[in-house]
Amino acid sequence: MPDPVQTVHQALDSFRIETPSWGYSDTGTRFGKFHQPAAAIDLDDKLADAAHVHRLTGCCPTVAAHVLWDFAPGTDPAVVASKAAALGIGIGSINPNLFQDQIYKLGSVGSPFENARDQALAHIIDCIKLGQVTGSRAVSLWFADGTNYPGQDSIRARKQRFEAALKEAHSHLSADQVMLVEYKPFEPAFYQTDLADWGMSFLTAKKAGPQAKVLVDTGHHYNSQNIEQIVAWLLDEEMLGGFHFNDRRYADDDLTLGSIDPYQIFRIFHEIHGFARERGAYPEIEYMIDQSHNLKPKIEAMLQTVCTAQELYAKAALVDHEALSAAQRKGNIVDAEICLKKAYNTDVTAMLGDWRVGRGLAADPLQAHRASGYTEKAAAERAKRRQDLGIATEHSYA
Amino acid sequence: MPDPVQTVHQALDSFRIETPSWGYSDTGTRFGKFHQPAAAIDLDDKLADAAHVHRLTGCCPTVAAHVLWDFAPGTDPAVVASKAAALGIGIGSINPNLFQDQIYKLGSVGSPFENARDQALAHIIDCIKLGQVTGSRAVSLWFADGTNYPGQDSIRARKQRFEAALKEAHSHLSADQVMLVEYKPFEPAFYQTDLADWGMSFLTAKKAGPQAKVLVDTGHHYNSQNIEQIVAWLLDEEMLGGFHFNDRRYADDDLTLGSIDPYQIFRIFHEIHGFARERGAYPEIEYMIDQSHNLKPKIEAMLQTVCTAQELYAKAALVDHEALSAAQRKGNIVDAEICLKKAYNTDVTAMLGDWRVGRGLAADPLQAHRASGYTEKAAAERAKRRQDLGIATEHSYA
Amino acid sequence: MPDPVQTVHQALDSFRIETPSWGYSDTGTRFGKFHQPAAAIDLDDKLADAAHVHRLTGCCPTVAAHVLWDFAPGTDPAVVASKAAALGIGIGSINPNLFQDQIYKLGSVGSPFENARDQALAHIIDCIKLGQVTGSRAVSLWFADGTNYPGQDSIRARKQRFEAALKEAHSHLSADQVMLVEYKPFEPAFYQTDLADWGMSFLTAKKAGPQAKVLVDTGHHYNSQNIEQIVAWLLDEEMLGGFHFNDRRYADDDLTLGSIDPYQIFRIFHEIHGFARERGAYPEIEYMIDQSHNLKPKIEAMLQTVCTAQELYAKAALVDHEALSAAQRKGNIVDAEICLKKAYNTDVTAMLGDWRVGRGLAADPLQAHRASGYTEKAAAERAKRRQDLGIATEHSYA
Amino acid sequence: MPDPVQTVHQALDSFRIETPSWGYSDTGTRFGKFHQPAAAIDLDDKLADAAHVHRLTGCCPTVAAHVLWDFAPGTDPAVVASKAAALGIGIGSINPNLFQDQIYKLGSVGSPFENARDQALAHIIDCIKLGQVTGSRAVSLWFADGTNYPGQDSIRARKQRFEAALKEAHSHLSADQVMLVEYKPFEPAFYQTDLADWGMSFLTAKKAGPQAKVLVDTGHHYNSQNIEQIVAWLLDEEMLGGFHFNDRRYADDDLTLGSIDPYQIFRIFHEIHGFARERGAYPEIEYMIDQSHNLKPKIEAMLQTVCTAQELYAKAALVDHEALSAAQRKGNIVDAEICLKKAYNTDVTAMLGDWRVGRGLAADPLQAHRASGYTEKAAAERAKRRQDLGIATEHSYA
Questions:
Q1: For residue A13, is it within any domain?
Q2: In this structure, what are the phi and psi dihedrals at residue B378, rounded to the nearest 5 degrees?
Q3: pLDDT exceeds cutoff 80 at D147
Q4: Are residues C251 and D149, on separate chains, in Cβ contact within 8 Å?
Q5: If both were cysteines, with which of A132, B40, D276, D300 could D282 make a disulfide (CB 3.0 to 4.6 Å apart)?
């Protein structure tokens, strides 16, 4: 077994995680939003916040963009990419918005209405092109499509509409782009969601083309579903494209990673380390955060998440695979489990701190952020700007 | 066994169901709202829609009010009650809003902040008084209170804050008012909800005082929880205050009643009929609808729900309780089950139609509504008014 | 819309459902079995019971066999097939037993131990050959394989062992045999089940070969998972091999079909009728019952299930597909839903009775069974035989 | 903040956990049992195993007894207690068996049959008396009672039968005995369980009398239910009687504690430490293990569980309650959460080892056990004895 500090540091060296632009702005539930003065108002704010997080952590070099929310009509994506570069970060995955427009009431590419399907497909293709301009690798597709009532639409017709649309979209990808296909059991559709589980994403991606892979959002599973098993299967099929990280207790709660069930995230990382060991290299996986920081301060929530991801990724790197395999071959359940538990129970706080200090970072990014005064400054400036722009912060459920 | 037609008609004679004002206006999910031109804009619209539904069904004499959304500051509730009366309906349960104001970020009566708790309690007391003016029987309390993260607050401190607040509120009830205490496992709180299940509502109501009862929202349960058992227990404890009816597949989906699992609703009604048979009288239960008509036309969804409630209530009235009891005493599971199935499988469509025609109503309220042109007229007028008022219909998740 | 009676009768004409041999014998939970005197002791009893059910219903011409429980070592399968034929029925799907032998402690074809894998594969191949002798079409594979603890075994290694074994087994199929691959989320494995969902069965079957299809057990899903959607996808992929019918509330409860959520079963049948309409023919699907009649009298439970399956299959045949498609195309959710609800709410009891009488059967198979004295006779004879054979009926959980 | 080592050692000083006699013998699922040669055959074996575990851990001074399995008819409980005392342990909670006898097919105290209810009540009273002889504090009641099908029995009648029975049983308690009332959502009952959740246990215990408390089995909850909240409420109501510890992913999986979700167990202990801090003393809680060691070696599984319980209890003791309360009062969610996470992430392995060594125990009980040769010796002797006694190890599901 190699030196744990070295193991942890090597693991951290190669670990990058993308923060989402929407994680810096105000979000909420259907019952309303609680506003934070320092929340990002526009794309410039989001880029600034993402760059700040990258400066503090050293492992968040890209920011995911949500096209509708981030690229106002007429925005030149090349200019945005330059702005980001000037701040020391890049534009990461491009996320089309296929649910907010009124035309998507009955779905986007799965809608029974041709005009909705056409608009959705055109928007996806636009996003693919936009990603080519910004130098993004991934176009990340989440569909809210589905139905609310039995009989509302033909499940098979919708399936076929999806297959046709994604095949067409795939043909627009450049050679270095990937299309990530996300699944989700429910919300906002409540009877049936067109891409409801990993199997549906898998089949749809396979039919779309070789650059389409499955995206695993840790919050998009049925209760008690074994996510690490899905990850292991996708790895084995070379169909794992990336993650949207968050935690949950009930539904798609979008809480910060590891806040509810940290051991599960550890086990997911363990599958990846194990796969890489066997294959001799890590697969190309997009690690992305997708959370709603409804109550926690946005940047604090992001830093907490990034640090937790590093911590659990590092712990998982400490599993002794030789001992584990030996125990598994003998059917020794207790010893096999102890291999995982020993790594998981290791306190890696100091190792992470050392790694950061060695890279010129503060040992504790959260404390460094608090000491920086960034939030207070942003709050003052953004609150005033929000007022100047007359941005309403009202929201009523009904 | 008495004549089934008579049994069904007698059951319908005593069955009243309250429609919610918010079911007539635009609602959605956190990802946005799909707007309908005919959706109600203000309280006058809601009263008109509710009166229309009552005219068509003959069994919806009251409309539930959501105070914040329905009573603009300065509104005289007595005037509202008069308006409603002029339309042939009454103001039903009063629903405080304890989640929308920014002050409720960490809770209302459960908040760690005294000013939030004070505002919430004052609002509840205002609602109690408002109910006295409008002649409403029930003040219906749903709390979004809870926490999103382990450690966020003391669970026991929050419990005690609830007990204190509801006891104080109860002291303001007049003799003919009831306080209904609703529970919900999650959403918008994602780690812990202060009143998460029937047991928590039960204990809190008991401590509040004798006029506090439990409100059962059919969508507010854990997956696979047996709702009719909870109803049976609350009946036996004389603590069942009322229902919020809707249907669900995953979470609090707020779909129309019986659209997903109609047999479950039948079984709930069966518990009530059985209880009434034994006690010789029906308990005083508030039957209320609480749904989000996000995709279906609002009034059609409401009519469908009312008719489904009548249908399942009528079917449940057809259970042969003598035969059922005899089978139960003998431990004859198959025969006991058949008693339920036989009643459930009876097609009561014609009996319901006859009952309606006998009361001067159309046999099919939905068709009568469509023939009335009500929605087209409302759509034209309200679309224009919405435009004149400059009401924005934009919503962005992030 | 054609005549409903004719539609129902045509639907029933082509509907066959297979009863399971184990549904006639005593089963229980881990906490014990409650014994019934009339429960089948051996294969002869099971064949007699299955033939009795077929005589009463006219739609259960085959009985599924569980090899370990039904074919004692040395049994000549051809003799069994002859016995069955003499009783007027045939041997249906062949079910290997891959979980009861002590060697399967850590799995069968997924075990880390080669001797367990070898024994399992050999047993499957034996079952394939046995099916050829008995003239069975389907070999139905359910695997209890999985792990109880994180780390216990390599998830990917187990996946690969499954792929290898089923590919090998598939090569032994004759041209008219199919291999059905069942999935189940948990129990008896509690951390991870090797074939946990439809996607895992689908991929494994695809790799096994063209005669491998997916088997859907209605009780083997996560809470709130949409089974009819899975059925629709499998139909569209031409990968639906058959069903194990039962009902559930919590886990794999193995209750009688439609006893908890009849509308769900109706919707599953609706997908099949809709698919057949579009393709012009019904796909070849094995409809099989897989239930545990722990408390209900075995034969009564079976008859109830068969009749409920016919009832819901018939109701689903009544859906007006033209009206449904028209509503779907217009996005008219309410009218589309009403197409389903109208068919579901039709009381088909009399139509079923007529169909039976027209085929020389009693209108009500359950009453005919009770009148026949079959159970009393079986109870007397089997109780004595059980005593003579010294069959213990003790069971202790710990 | 006091010295962590001292805090941990003090916490461990007062922490006792009871092992269950049935955890030492062979258990399984409904699909069968996998037998271990070293599994306990009779009560003497179980006492020996429990004493061995206590010698190794120093914190398991009592063993729970399952009356039917442990006390053969004619056994003098005083003799058993003496035997246990001679081995250095005591008889802990007494567990009646109210589900195995054929008379309990439709329930025990909830059965529609008077003879079943009478037998059940008499058995409970016998257990109370037996506990008085053995010097046990707790009589621990788990009821398998419930129904499998809608209509099978009257839910309210069953509720009332429970109330009457437990009130009667309570009157037989001596002053120093407690009656623990356990709940469970399902299994073996699949439609409705009479005591399905904490609220039902709470009400039933309240009606039974002041010495009746609620027993929380960590595996007996709905998916995603917040167990620590239930614990907090029961503590606040002074109704928490004890725990049955185990872990789960899907249902009542009875896996070893902390094997699936260790952070949840930490949070449960945190509620207890917090309550004790406020009240100045720890409440009297029975910490008991209730697991099925179906695959893991029995004694290893028990040692792992005990050590994990100590570890998580110790970690939870490290929470800085001053800092936590301060953060909660300010609504600082991130800092409050960090208080929990910091304690949870502390590696307490060495502190536990030191505590053990300081008490003359091995630092690692599992390694000490393996080095002792206990299992090999037991396996040899018990395998032979099992053979001599002609104990069958066969089990067939159907």
A1: yes
A2: -65, -40
A3: yes
A4: no
A5: D276
What's CA D57's distance to the chain center, in Å?
17
Write the pLDDT tens digit of every residue in A321-367.
999 999 999 999 999 999 999 999 999 999 999 999 999 999 999 99
Q: Give per-residue pLDDT as tens, A223-236.
A: 999 999 999 999 99
Residues C255/D149, Cβ–Cβ less than 8 Å: yes
Cβ atoms of A180 and A143 within 8 Å: the answer is: no
Which of C104, C202, C194 lies closest to C154, judged by CA?
C194
What is the least distance, in Å, from the CA of D276 to any CA of chain A? 24
- Min CA distance, D249 vs chain A (Å)? 6
pLDDT at position A394 over 70: no
Rounded Cα gap, residues B286 and B211, in angstroms: 14
Considering CB atoms only, which of B224, B311, B349 is closest to C249?
B224
Q: Which residues contact A384 (CB under 8 A, 6 or more apart)?
A: none
User: Considering the entire predicted model, what is its pTM?
Assistant: 0.98
Q: What is the mean pLDDT of residues B13-32?
A: 96
pLDDT digits (tens, 9 = 90+) for B290-316: 999 999 999 999 999 999 999 999 999
Q: What is the DSSP string of B298-341?
A: HHHHHHHHHHHHHHHHHHHHT--HHHHHHHHHTT-HHHHHHHHH
Question: Which residue of chain A has the CA closest to C106?
Answer: A331
Alpha helices in D114-254 (DSSP H): 114-134, 155-170, 198-208, 227-236
> How many residues make up chain A in this entry?
398
Q: How many helices (H) and strands (E) does chain A have?
A: 15, 12
Q: How far is CA D114 from the centre of its chain?
A: 30
Residue D391 within any structural domain of the chain: no
> How many structural domains does chain D have?
1
Task: Using the structure block, give the residue that is written with the tokens 């989906």.
Answer: B253
State the average pLDDT for chain D: 96
CB B304, CB B23: distance < 8 Å: no
Strand C146-147 with C192-193, pairing = antiparallel
| Separation of alpha carbons B113 and B126, rounded Å | 20
- Chain B residue numbers with beta carbons less than 8 Å from the beta carbon of A29 are 30, 187-188
What's the CA gap between A87 and C114, in Å, rounded? Answer: 57
How far is residue C280's CA from residue A325's CA, in Å, rounded to a whole number?
53
User: How many whole angstroms separate alpha carbon A205 and alpha carbon A207?
Assistant: 5
Asked if the structure places residue D131 within a domain, the reply is yes
Range of the domain at A102: 4-385
What value, to the nearest 5°, has the Cα angle with vertex A379 and ends A377 and A384? 105
Mean pLDDT of C71-94: 94
pLDDT of C394 above 70 = no
Local structure of B63: helix, strand or coil: strand
Please check whether residue C239 is in contact with residue C282, taking contact to mean a CB–CB distance below 8 angstroms: no
Mean pLDDT of A137-159: 98
Across the interface, do C249 and B226 touch by the CB < 8 Å criterion? yes
Nearest to D312 by CA among D287, D280, D337: D287
Top pLDDT among D137 and D67 is at: D137
Closest CA to C29 of D69, D115, D27: D27
Cα–Cα distance, D246 to D289 (Å, whole number): 7
Over range A90-115, report the average pLDDT: 97
CATH number of the domain where residue A275 is located:
3.20.20.150
Give CA–CA dist B223/B22, Å, rounded.
Answer: 26
What is the token pair recorded at B76?
């005289």
What is the predicted pLDDT for the residue at C393?
Answer: 66
- How confident is the model over D310-359, as pLDDT tens digits? 999 999 999 999 999 999 999 999 999 999 999 999 999 999 999 999 99
Given the structure tokens 């439970």, which residue do they identify?
Answer: C301
Chains contacting A (3 or more CB pairs within 8 Å): B, C, D
Name every chain D residue with its beta carbon within 8 A of the beta carbon of B236: 156, 159-160
Q: Is residue B68 domain-resident?
A: yes
Residue D394 is predicted with a pLDDT of: 67
